[in-house]
Amino acid sequence: ILVTVLFRPQKVCLCPFLPLHPLHISTHLYIIQHPAEESKVLRTVPLLAACLPQDKCKVKIGRRFSEERDPELSAVCRRSGTLILYPGDEAANLEEFILDSPVYPSTIIIIDGTWSQAKDIFYKNSLFRLPKQVQLKTSISSQYVIRTQPTNRCLSTLECAAVALSILEKNNDIQETLLRPLQALCSFQLQHGAQIRLSKEYLLKNGLYPKPMPKNKRKLRKMELLMNSVKI
């Protein structure tokens, strides 16, 4: 898999860090990708897809989805064995949920985009309220250090998939295998001019945020919540 990078080496081959064969998994993964992610150079979904069988990892690009526009996705959302990974007060912890679920999950949906883009997709598509909503309870910090995250606890799409699949497949090796190309990508970029991007939460708490505080009251409130480590 080749990653093209502006102002740095034009192509970087990460093939040596991919598994020799796609990982053998029983779980179906659906990535709902915001269209803006397509133009991002250092995105993680291509790395994730390169590690998994094509019939087990499908990427759907768009902002709005309905039964008329995507009957396949509609059918997936209506199945009892489908989960959607999105944090919130109504979300169950994935590890705890599978212990008590009468139907073992066969499919998981993950939204790919910035947090504001993911929120827009989740709340403005009624289809995504049909599957059981789950979240990850993990203490790991993101290794995707070349892209700014809102908080220290935020994970990239690939990292979320790696943790979720390792839980659903009951195989911790999956997480290690999926993270390997991401680690290589970040390491190579840091060696060739990229800078470690600290989270907005860290920058705000330590007085390092480079931009003026927003005048918009809603945005200002979000900044205050980040500074106080409140989930937003």
TrEMBL record:
Q: Which InterPro entries match?
A: DTW, DTWD2/TAPT
Q: Which GO terms describe its biological process?
A: tRNA processing
Q: Look up the EC number in the record and give it.
A: 2.5.1.25
Lineage, uppermost ranks: Eukaryota, Metazoa, Chordata, Craniata, Vertebrata
Q: Give this protein's Gene Ontology molecular function annotations.
A: tRNA-uridine aminocarboxypropyltransferase activity
Q: What is this protein called?
A: tRNA-uridine aminocarboxypropyltransferase
Question: Member of which family?
Answer: Belongs to the TDD superfamily. DTWD2 family.
Keyword Transferase included in the entry's annotation = yes
The species is Rhinolophus ferrumequinum (Greater horseshoe bat)
